Prior knowledge:
mainly alpha, about 75% helix, about 0% strand
Amino acid sequence: xxxxxxLPLIGALFxxxxxxxxxxxxxxxxxxxxxxxxxxxxxxxxxxxxxxxxLMLTGHKLPPRRQLLNAALLGVLLLAVGNGxxxxxxxxxxxxxxxxxxxxxxxxFALCFSRLFGIATRKIEWLGIAIxxxxxxxxxxxxxxxxxxxxxxLILIGSMSWAFxxxxxxxxxxxxxxxxxxxxxxxxxxxxLAASLxxxxxxTTLPTLSGFLAVGYLAVFGSIIAINAYMYLIRNVTPxxxxxYAYVNPVVAVLLGTTFxxxxxxxxxxxxxxxxxxxxxxxxxxxxxxxxxxxxxPCDSSKxx
Length: 305
C-alpha cells in the first residue's frame, strides 16, 4: 500500500481515536445546560446543514434515491440511536468515562452482526466476545451503573445499533465523499429533534457559554470531521478496523473525565475497563496476531510431469 493510500487511513483513525474519545467529555459538559435529545439534534442538524450547503455550493449534487435512503438509514442507526442513547445516558449522570467503556463493546457486537451477514469469524474472536461480556457484567455489578440499570441498557442498545449500522454500511451503496455524512447528520438531526419534541423537552434557561461551546465542538469536530473520517473507513477497511477506535476512546475519555470533570472510577470499574479493552483488541487484532496455520498438502511425485 502506497504512502498516499496509507496517509488518509492514518488521519481518519487518528480523528476517531482522539476526537471521538474527547466527545464524551464534551457531551457531559453540554447536557448540564441542554436537554439531551435537543442537544444531540441541534448538534447533528447544524453540522448536516453546514456540510450540505458547502457541498451544494461547490457543485455536488444529491445522490440517486437508493443511495440517499441508505445514508439516511445509517444516520438513524449510527447517530440518532447510537449517539443519542449515549447523550441521554450522560444526562442521567453516567460518567463520561464509563459511557465510553460501555461503547467500547461496539466491535464485539459488530463481530456478531458480521456473522449474520456471512463474514467469516474465528474462534479467537468469539473468545474475545466472551471476555468482553464478562467485562460488561463486571462493569454493571458495581459503581456508577449498578444504580442506573436503564442508562446501562440504553448505552448497550445504542452500541448494538451503531455496530449493526457499521456492518450494514460496509455492504450497501452509499453516496460518494462527504455527501453520505451530510445526509446522515441531517437525518439524525431531524429524528432527534422530533424525538425531543415528542418527549416534551423544553429550554427553561439559555444554555451557558460552555454549553454552546460544547455543541459547537461536537458539531464541527465530533460530527463534520470525525463522522466523515468514519464513513471513509467503513468504505475502505474491514468493520473490525473501522471500529478499532473503541479501545482507544475509553482511555481518552477516562483521562479527560478524571482530570477535568472530577470523575472517579472504582477499582472494579478500572478492572472492567481493562477487560473490555483487552477483549476488543482480541476481536479486532486477533486475526492478525494469531494467523491461521497453513497446511501444505504433500506433493505426489507420481503426478508431476
